[in-house]
C-alpha cells in the first residue's frame, strides 16, 4: 500500500510563541527550506532575517504546519478552536511539543473540511 508523502520544502511553518524551544524548531524548519513565521503576544527581537513576525490571524491563514509554544494559561486553553480553525487552510499539521498543552485544542466540533494531524512529542 502506497503512503502519501508531504514535501516540507516551500511550506510555511507557523510558530505560536517564540521562546527557546520554538527558536530551535524554527531552525529545523529553515533547514527543511520552509518559510518560517512567528507570532508572540509580546513581539520579540528576532535576529534571524528568515523569520517573519506576523499577527495571530495572519499566522493562522498562512501556516501549513503550526507549532504551539505557549504556556497553559486561561487565555491559551482552547486557543485552537472553531473560530481559529475557520481561519486556517483546508489542512494543517499541528505540532505540540509539550503534551501538557493538549488543552489548547478544542475538538468539540471540528470543521468537516479540515484535516488536522496532531503530533505530540517531547524534545
Biggest sheet, spatial arrangement of strands: 3-2-1-4-5-6
String of helices and strands: EHEEHEHEE
Helicity, as a percent range: 10-25%
Compute the number of strand runs.
6
Structural class: alpha/beta
The residue ranges in which pLDDT falls below 50 over 5 or more consecutive positions are 107-116
Radius of gyration: 14 Å
User: What portion of residues belong to β-strands?
Assistant: 15-25%
Please tell me the overall pLDDT: 80
Largest sheet: 6 strands, parallel
User: What is the tally of helical segments?
Assistant: 3
How are the elements arranged and paired?
Layout: E1 12-16, H1 20-31, E2 35-39, E3 51-53, H2 56-62, E4 65-68, H3 82-86, E5 91-96, E6 115-120
Question: How would you describe this protein?
Answer:
The chain is an alpha/beta fold. 20% of the residues lie in helices and 24% in strands. The chain has three helices and six strands. A six-stranded parallel β-sheet has the order 3-2-1-4-5-6, sandwiched between helices. Strand 1, helix 1 and strand 2 form a beta-alpha-beta unit. The longest helix has 12 residues.
Features:
alpha/beta, 24% strand, 6-stranded parallel beta sheet, 20% helix, 6 strands, 123 residues, 3 helices, globular
Amino acid at each position: 500500500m502506497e503512503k502519501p508523502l508531504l514535501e516540507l520544502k516551500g511550506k510555511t511553518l507557523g510558530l505560536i510563541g517564540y521562546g527557546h524551544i520554538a527558536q530551535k524548531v524554527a531552525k529545523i524548519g529553515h533547514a527543511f527550506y520552509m518559510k518560517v513565521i512567528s507570532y508572540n503576544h509580546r513581539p520579540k527581537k528576532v535576529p534571524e532575517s528568515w523569520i517573519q513576525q506576523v499577527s495571530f490571524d495572519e499566522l493562522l491563514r498562512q501556516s501549513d504546519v503550526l507549532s504551539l509554544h505557549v504556556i497553559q494559561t486561561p487565555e491559551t486553553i482552547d486557543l485552537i478552536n472553531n473560530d481559529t480553525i475557520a481561519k486556517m487552510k483546508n489542512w494543517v499539521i499541528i505540532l505540540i511539543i509539550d503534551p501538557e498543552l493538549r488543552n489548547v485544542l478544542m475538538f468539540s466540533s471540528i470543521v468537516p473540511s479540515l484535516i488536522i494531524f496532531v503530533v505530540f512529542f517531547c524534545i
